[in-house]
Amino acid sequence: MVTTDTAAAPATPARATAVRRLLVAGVSLAACFSGLSVAGLLSAESSPFPPAVPEATCGPGARPETDIQGRVPTRDYDSGRVRRGYQCNTRQVSHEGATGGFKVLRYTDRTGRTCAYYDSTRLFPLDAPFQVQSGFGVVVLDMSDPSRPRRTATLTSPAMLSPHESLLINDRRGLMGAVLGNASTNAGILDLYDVRTDCRRPRLLSSTPAAVLGHESGWSPDGRTFYASSTVGQTLVAIDVTDPLLPRPVFTQLGVNYHGMRLSPDGRTMYAANIGNDVSDGTFPGQGLRVIDVSEIQDRVPNPSVTVLSDLVWREASIPQVSQPFRRGKRSYLLQVDEFANFGLTDFAGAEVGAARIIDVTDPRRPLVVSNLRLAVHQPAGRRKAFNDPGASSPVGGYAGHYCSAPYRQDPKVVACSMIGSGLRIFDIRDLKHPRELGYFNRPVQSAIPIKTGANALSQPAWDVKRRSVWYTDGNSGFYVVKLTNGTGRLLQR
Fold first, then answer.
1. Boundaries of domain holding 156
2. Quick one: the chain helix, strand, coil %, rounded to 5?
3. DSSP 486
């Protein structure tokens, strides 16, 4: 079943459709190899967008943004204002390192020690000149004192040198896994580490080619199955890691273009970010959320099959990144985020930004978008206004979303999103249908080096609920511990 979020879905102008059909022959092959959708060939103004969320009301200690919500204007670089950073109902607790990638993870081992883990590169060798000083691989931090993170190890096994977006921990078993990946795909070497014994010194259990190809990933909640997707490589592999010393593939599917994958609490339903493959009319019409029955994999049925339960698409989509499941009462939801902008060949300034949304998946055959998490700078008018700001014109950066997270699965009241040039954004979701901005923290870099200019908040944030803090990395400046202030942190209480 394909469901389209069409509460006010507009008709596509005939002329624009004709232009898209003429262009598709030249762009579809490139899209397949780049992993980038071409649905943005139409100007964003061709369809109404969901509105931006209401702006945060900043309390004492704020250094508020000087322009529309989420923007760091060129004049702030020219005046030097950018060096002070921007914060609203947040404050910096600590900072470590000089680079960052796509994940920040938090884990408490069986002795009670708490550690942070973050990948140090967005895309090797893009960050190599900066990693020479700060170190290559996945960084391990002892977070016994969050005000003074202490680096205890840097993991440099094959997958850890370039895990791309695949680094994840299974809390139940204390296993950390990643596959060797890059922006398209790479040889899928799967590395598995024990972090349960001593989180400060992870122990490599195995390093095998079990994933076939690599880019993104997902864990079954019971920690018995690690899923790897190669995106451009068109593979989905389920790997039995019941014995982490001897991982073995139990299912391989070809011809699917999935990004991040998360699973229901029983491990029987997969929520896959589906980039899609059909470019026959210049778009990927199936892109968005794909809900899949993977119960035969979970049950270890010989030669398992999977069943697509539903597909959900939304009109303002860019590149679907991942969906994090959570529950409100007895209903099931996803915190879903799109990455980058859905750009075409000629009008990237007018490209659509998907940002993030909340999806009701209580009935997995009929998922429904409940609300959207968007900033003013994501809107068509805001995007055009801000397009020439430092770092904003990058097709793989700028003012767009990348990863979001909730502090826990049952009844979260607040969520955080890394929104690249707009930094870390905090949202109040007590009213799921009407989310609002709660605060933000952004540390853009002013540099003569273009790839180090601006903010580059790409990481999945991690939560320290007890201390009312969020951990994230900025690719241009490293790891941050950020405390929610002015009473906003109370929303982390269960």
1. 2-492
2. 15, 35, 45
3. T
Q: What beta strand segments (E) does 408-458 contain?
A: 414-418, 424-428, 436-442
* CATH assignment at residue 151: 2.130.10.10
Structure tokens at 277: 């493959």
Helix (H) or strand (E) holding 389: none
DSSP summary character for residue 348: G
Return the H-helix or E-strand segment holding 484: strand 478-484
443, 455 contact by CB (below 8 A): yes
Q: Which residue has the tokens 């990927």?
A: 284
Give me the amino acid identity at 52.
A
Q: Rounded distance, CA 308 to CA 297, Å?
A: 14
Residue 399 corresponds to which tokens in the numbers above?
Answer: 């003012």
pLDDT tens profile 389-432: 998 988 788 999 999 999 999 999 999 999 999 999 999 999 99
Q: How many residues does the chain have?
A: 494
Question: Which one-letter DSSP state was computed for residue 17?
Answer: H
In degrees and rounded to multiples of 5, residue 373 shows phi and psi of -110, 100
Torsion of CA 80, 85, 87, 92, to 10 degrees: -150
Structural domains counted in the chain: 1
- Model confidence pTM above 0.85: yes
Q: Which residues contact 247 (CB under 8 A, 6 or more apart)?
A: 190, 192, 206, 208, 210, 226, 239, 240, 241
Tell me the C-alpha distance between 449 and 465, whole Å: 36
Which of helix, strand or coil describes residue 370? strand
Closest CA to 24 of 41, 46, 43: 41
